[in-house]
Structure formats: C-alpha cells, structure tokens
TrEMBL record:
Name of the protein described by the UniProt record: Glycerol-3-phosphate dehydrogenase [NAD(P)+]
Record EC number: 1.1.1.94
MF annotations from Gene Ontology: glycerol-3-phosphate dehydrogenase [NAD(P)+] activity; NAD binding
Associated pathway: Membrane lipid metabolism; glycerophospholipid metabolism
Lineage: Bacteria, Pseudomonadati, Pseudomonadota, Gammaproteobacteria, Oceanospirillales
Organism: Billgrantia tianxiuensis
Residues given in the record as sn-glycerol 3-phosphate binding sites: 110, 138, 193, 246, 256-258
Length: 357
C-alpha cells in the first residue's frame, strides 16, 4: 500500500457527514464532501464551517466541499454515505456512474427503507453489487464529535479490508473505531434505538424520573433483542457500542434529534410541529411505524414500539399509554435466562388454582 494519503468521499452535507469529513481530514486523508447545495459548499470551503447543520464548530480546512458528484467521487478509495434514509437510494443512484468495485462503501445512516424493510447497506449492495460494504454506527452525537469529545464507533462488515481501512481512515486521538463482522446487527441497533430515544424524550418532558428512564432503556434493549432474534440477527451485538452504547446516549441527551422530537411531543406539541421545529432528520419517527408493522407481521412482542406508535399516530395520550404498559402482562427480566413464556405459564397455573397453598 502506498504512503499517499487515503482519498475519502463523504456524500451528505448534514451534521454527521460534516463531522466525519472533518475527522478523516484531521487524520490526514484527502477528503471531498458532496452536498446538493452549491452555495453551502462554497460557504464550507470559504469559512470552514457548516452554518446550516453544524453551526459554531470549525471543520478541518482541508475538507473540500462540492456539489459535483463526479469531482467528489473520482479517485476516492472510501465512500461514506451520510444521507437520510428517505433519500439514500436516490443519492446512491446519482453516485453510481462514478462508483467502482475496488471502492469501500460505508453507510452511516440509521434508518430503514419502507419497501422491503431494507437497511441502508443492503441498498448499497443492491445498487452496486460490490463486495467492500460496511456500516458505521455507535454513540456518535455529531456535535460532540465536532467538539472533539472522546468518542467511539463501530465499523461493521464481513469484509476484513473494509473494517481495516475504515479503522485506519477514522481512528484518531478523539475517535476510536471498533470492528464487528455483524453488519446486520450493528445497523439494526442504530435504527432501532431511535424509537426509544423518542420515548425517553417524551418521558423527560412529562417529568418522569431516572428510574423511569433506566427502566425504559433496559426494556428497550430487551425488545430490540427479541426483534433482532426474530430477524435472524445476533442479539449479542446489542451489548456493544452500536446497541446499548447508542441507546444510552440517544435516550439521555438533548443533542439527539429523536430525543428532542419526543420531548416536544411530551410538552404537548403535535408531531408535524415537533418535526418542523427540529429542521433536521429524526429517523425514529418513520422507524416506529415500520418496526411496529414488521413486529406485528412477524408476531414479535414489542409493547414499547406498539405503545409509542399509538401515541404518535393514533392520538393515545402518553400518560395513559405509560399506565397501560405498567399494567401489561407480567414478564421476565432477562428472557435469555428465564423465558417470558415460563412466567406466563406460571401465572396461568396460579390463576387456575394450581400450586396455591
Ligand atoms: N447527526 C448525528 O449526530 C448522527 C446522525 N447519524 C445518521 O446520519 C444520517 C444523516 O444524518 P445527519 O447528517 O445527521 O442529517 P442532517 O439532518 O444533519 O442533514 C441531512 C443532510 O442530508 C441532505 N439531504 C436530504 N435529502 C437529500 C437528497 N435528496 N439529496 C441529497 N442530500 C439530501 C440534507 O441536505 C442535509 O445535508 C441519519 O440517518 C442519522 O441517523 C448517525 C450518527 C450520528
Ligand atoms: O445516532 C445518533 C447518536 O449516536 C444521533 O441521534 P439523533 O439522530 O437522534 O440525533
């Protein structure tokens, strides 16, 4: 491998794309960032700041922004795609003429496509047929990365070259990159936790306490694991940064857009109003709908996702939903230790008078 700096292309001019572009440049890579808006690109090149999505933070001046896809992709070894899920496939299609088999393509997007319940790396695979494909996910609030707060992420791919080159490209003094070969689990964790961040924001706005938040996060993890198992993913991945790590940060921080949408809803704002006020993407709103439908179709028990769906889309008051959830069927703490069905069976027996003194 040559000593030339790695060439990195970042597709997306939002907060995360901008933060990642700056990390790669801090690390010595030659970085080009693609964004739709030529004026914003010119402003980034002039002022070394992204005033629309990451105001108040300096971007490494070596990052070159452009609205010309060909210019950005030419010669790139690593392509990071940081585009919201709704536009992800469209942008990959725009990029396709300048992508080639030797490149490493990595999604950084934590969302799901409605048609076929596809994750973003599956879209990368479908649109290109390439083999160096991966996903970055973890507790990665873009504004904290922009402040160079110590942060860790996961690069997940079954391709060792992809994992290694991403660790080399992005790993630095303030950003540590761990490897995983469970691409599906890592990507699913990043998408699912957004649902529960909305619930945590809502609970905070309703004045609920730390016990509540802790219960919510832990039960969310149980639900995520159950869902993952039903889709054939490895639930152990959720014990890592892209599972419990991301769940903790997104359910605890006002910097999370999903948390903020939940908080606004908890304050009594309507869903459209909450999204409008945010002005950025909160993937969880759409993910709740998709996951709730998928859980129903697969017969997976997901009371939090179901309850949240009813609050967001069917007008059930959040407090009323919280009460119903608290009074829901008796369950098990860790289902891999004591299966939920065993708890329910024991209840049925006792209720039928069997085993009572
Ligand atoms: N911001 C964060 O802290 C983190 C975000 N992510 C994920 O990164 C993904 C991207 O999010 P952000 O950069 O935060 O989003 P953002 O909301 O800050 O910006 C979205 C960007 O996508 C662009 N965009 C939207 N539709 C487009 C289209 N049709 N064509 C071209 N560009 C389009 C917008 O112009 C904007 O530049 C999301 O899925 C999010 O879950 C992951 C980790 C952290
Ligand atoms: O994924 C994130 C942090 O890891 C960012 O969360 P939000 O999309 O809710 O801001």
């Amino acid at each position: 491998m040559s000593d030339d700096p790695m060439r990195v292309a970042v597709l997306g001019g939002g907060s995360f794309g901008t933060a990642l572009a700056s990390i790669a440049a801090d690390n010595g890579a030659k970085v080009c960032q693609w964004l739709r808006d030529p004026e914003l690109a010119a402003q980034i090149n002039r002022e070394h700041c992204n005033p629309r999505y990451l105001p108040d933070y300096a971007i490494n001046p070596a990052v070159r922004a452009s609205s010309n896809m060909q210019e950005v992709l030419e010669g790139a070894e690593l392509v990071l795609v940081a585009i919201p899920s709704k536009a992800f496939r469209d942008v990959v299609r725009q990029a396709r003429p300048w992508l080639h088999e030797e490149q490493i393509l990595v999604s950084t997007t934590k969302g799901i496509q409605e048609e076929g319940f596809k994750l973003m790396s599956q879209i990368l695979e479908e649109e290109t047929g390439f083999s160096h494909i991966g996903v970055i996910s973890g507790p990665n609030l873009a504004t904290e990365i922009a402040q160079k707060q110590l942060t860790a992420t996961v690069i997940a791919s079954d391709d060792a070259l992809t994992r290694t080159r991403v660790q080399q490209a992005l790993g630095c003094d303030y950003f540590r990159v761990y490897a995983s070969n469970d691409r599906y689990g890592v990507e699913l964790g990043g998408a699912l936790k957004n649902i529960y961040a909305i619930a945590a924001g809502m609970a905070a706005a309703l004045g609920m306490g730390e016990n509540t938040r802790s219960m919510l996060m832990t039960r969310a993890l149980a639900e995520m694991g159950r869902f993952a198992v039903s889709l054939g993913a490895n639930p152990m991945t959720f014990l890592g940064l892209a599972g419990v790590g991301d769940l903790i940060v997104t359910c605890s921080s006002q910097l999370s857009r999903n948390y903020r949408v939940g908080y606004a809803l908890g304050q009594g704002k309507g869903l459209d109003e909450a999204i409008e006020a945010l002005g950025q993407v909160a993937e969880g709103v759409n993910t709740i709908r998709l996951v709730r439908d998928k859980a129903r179709a697969e017969g997976v028990y997901m009371p939090l996702a179901e309850g949240l769906y009813q609050v967001l889309f069917e007008g059930v008051p959040a407090r009323e939903m919280a009460r119903m959830l608290m009074r829901g069927e008796q369950s098990s703490d860790v289902e891999f230790v004591l299966p939920r069905e065993d708890v329910q069976r024991a209840h049925r027996r006792v209720e039928a008078g069997e085993g009572k003194p």
